[in-house]
Specification:
With about 450 residues, the chain is an alpha/beta fold. The chain is built from 14 helices and 18 strands. It has two domains: about 180 residues, 3-Layer(aba) Sandwich (Rossmann fold); about 240 residues, NAD(P)-binding Rossmann-like Domain (Rossmann fold, 3-Layer(aba) Sandwich), CATH 3.40.50. It is globular.
Length: about 450
């Protein structure tokens, strides 16, 4: 029986990228169950060692030219592509990202097929292959670290100062143990009086937010509805031996522009221009905001520079200290996210007067955590989870007939939705991208 060769490209975009799209155990299972042979490029930094793959029967080879199908995680350099190769990875092209258009053009010239993980979805449009929860977990750890650093810079003692950056932990388990210890300190010794009540706001409730809340929930906490925040502060019905959590849904973050018009989630999705943002009215009650929502320019900004100036440039220091911008849309829904950061240096302070990022956690403005590659910070857990979601699709990717027309290639619907290029041509759902390539 003829076997389909599937290659796994070595990740080399940055020194923190240690993930693999398919872990050794799953590669071995696929080879035992299907006519598939897996090859992998050697890597000195990948979270799984070359020997881990060899033990499963995977061929470790620098040269993947024999593999008609290649899996990767991040973008692929131009010189790697081969004629009519099928490439499966996060291409970051569907918004017309300028820095990736040369890559897309190269794939078109070589008649490559591009399957993008981000677009593998069910009939309801729900993503089926993703890292979202891990982004939330890593981002929340970094945000708690940032809070501890900011408070220490202000001369305020807190249990958060014992929390390290995500990449400084050997595993997610170790990070969780550290946060539980901080939670024990809060429960038994309480927080500094100036911090009470300490409220964390979570914008969004999807996979990313769920991952962030999983980490936050290791602390002693009480959840409150956003609408009750003002009441809690006015009645002083709060405690110092716990932290508070408010989860903001769409109806908490936007309201209809037309007076008397009721909020409609579907209308908001279809016609966001009919709504105005209202999240800022809650921010004075928060110490930390976690941004975990999808944003595009069609939607209103939820945290504006103008609002932050009114909050910070008064005579009184605001309660609000840190934004964990896990979504990390530069100049997006959180307007003061003016750049991305790295796992080794995950934050900056937004200088309101200069309108620029300032290194460190000191300054008259919020600290912004804006790492754009958070799942890489917990490479082991991220790779295992991602591989579990990807594994069921590998047999269909391997068995498809890429010599036929797109309509007859035998890919199942969930995968066909994710095919941006088929033998070098944009598929019907992505024809709109032609204008980005020619721009």
């Amino acid at each position: 029986m003829v076997k389909t060769l599937i290659g796994i490209r070595r990740e080399d975009k940055n020194p923190w990228e240690r993930r693999a799209p398919l872990i050794p155990a799953h590669a071995g299972e696929l080879m035992r169950e299907y006519p598939i042979e897996v090859w992998v490029q050697p890597s000195a930094i990948r979270v799984f060692q070359d020997e881990d793959y060899r033990r499963e029967g995977v061929i470790v080879s620098e040269d993947l030219s024999a593999c008609p199908i290649v899996l990767a995680v991040k973008e692929i350099p131009l010189e790697f592509f081969r004629e009519e190769r099928v490439c499966v990875f996060f291409s970051h092209t569907i918004k017309g990202q300028p820095h990736n258009m040369p890559m897309l053009k190269r794939m078109m010239d070589l008649r490559c097929t591009l399957i993008d993980y981000e677009r593998i979805a069910d009939e309801q449009g729900r993503r089926l292959v993703f890292f979202g929860r891990q982004a939330g977990q890593a981002g929340m750890i970094d945000t708690l670290w940032a809070l501890g650093q900011r408070l220490q810079a202000e001369g305020i003692e807190s249990p958060f100062v014992s929390i390290r950056k995500t990449i400084d932990y050997a595993s997610l388990v170790e990070a969780k143990e550290s946060i539980q210890k901080a939670g024990w300190e809060i429960h038994h010794h309480g927080l500094d009086s100036s911090l009470i009540p300490l409220v964390f706001g979570f914008a969004g409730y999807g996979h990313v937010s769920q991952g962030a809340q999983e980490i936050f929930d290791l602390l002693p906490f009480e959840e409150v509805a956003p609408a009750r925040l003002k009441e809690i502060f006015s009645q002083k019905s709060f405690f110092g031996n716990r932290v508070y959590k408010a989860v903001f849904k769409e109806e908490d973050m936007a309201e209809p522009k037309t007076r008397g018009h009721r909020f409609s989630l579907q209308e908001y999705y279809d016609h966001p221009e009919r709504y105005r943002p209202v999240l800022e009215k809650y921010i004075p009650f928060l110490t930390v905001l976690i941004n975990a929502i999808f944003w595009s320019p069609r939607y209103p900004r939820f945290v504006t520079k103008k609002f932050l100036k009114t909050l910070y440039l008064g005579s009184k220091r605001p309660r609000f200290r840190v934004i964990g911008d896990i979504s990390c849309d530069v100049n997006g829904g959180v307007e003061c996210t003016v750049k991305c950061t790295t796992p080794s240096d995950p934050v900056f302070t937004y200088d309101l007067k200069k309108d620029e990022a300032q290194d460190g956690v000191k300054g008259r403005g919020p600290v912004i955590m804006a790492v754009d590659n958070l799942p890489a910070e917990i490479s082991l857990e991220s790779s295992v989870f991602f591989s579990q979601t990807l594994r069921p699709f590998i047999p269909a990717i391997a068995a498809a007939d890429y010599s036929r027309n797109f309509d007859q290639c035998l890919l199942p619907p969930a995968l066909k939705k994710a095919v941006i290029l088929f033998r070098g041509d944009l598929t019907p759902d992505y024809e709109y991208m032609r204008e980005f390539i020619s721009a």
